[in-house]
Amino acid sequence: MSRSDVAKREDGLAIRGSVQDNAYQAYQLHLGGKDWEDVAIRLGYANGKTAQVEVRQYITRAAVQMDTAKREEVLYLEMARLDALQSALWDDAMEGDTKAVDSILRVMGHRAKLLGLELMAGVDTSVTSRTVIIQGDTQDYIRSLQLVTGGKTE
After folding, report:
1. Are 89 and 53 contained in the same domain?
2. Count of domains for the chain
3. Is residue 34 part of a domain?
4. How do residues 20-61 score in pLDDT, each as one tens digit?
5. Is residue 132 part of a domain?
6. Range of the structural domain that residue 101 is part of
7. Half-sphere exposure of residue 37, counting CA atoms within 13 Å on the CB side?
8. Angle at 136 between CA 39 and CA 111, to 5 degrees
9. 133/119 Cα distance (integer angstroms)
10. Could you point out which of 19, 22, 105, 134 has its C-alpha 20 to 30 Å from the C-alpha of 57?
11. Which residues make Cβ contacts (< 8 Å) with residue 144, sequence separation at least 6?
12. Phi then psi dihedrals of residue 153, to 5 deg
């Protein structure tokens, strides 16, 4: 596919061929509440861990390919979604609904993660915008580096 044929998504993730499209579908299913094992079964992955790793690599690569303006746009979109969810649950939580309280805490956790706040506790905040954080084991790290560099690890 040429660069002009790449379909842009509202969330900024671009689709380039069947592997990436499959990873995007897995990402959407997981966002919709499916656990990784269910995602793997539905999309033909060997197991849930494989689906999770492929989605993580896909998101990392898509994020690296986004320009600053698009990253900012996606950040604001996701923050607005989290705000709407929290707002919808707030009154119930304040009246003592423990499920609503739990949901709000998860929303707050996602917001902190999205903003990188959990990473900033006790950390030097002078990192540059070129810093990439890769979670996982050594093999996840190597695969992520290969995705970001187009397969080159020199």
Report:
1. no
2. 2
3. yes
4. 678 889 988 998 889 999 999 999 999 999 999 999 888 888
5. no
6. 68-123
7. 0
8. 75
9. 10
10. 105
11. 56, 57, 60, 132, 134, 136
12. -120, 25
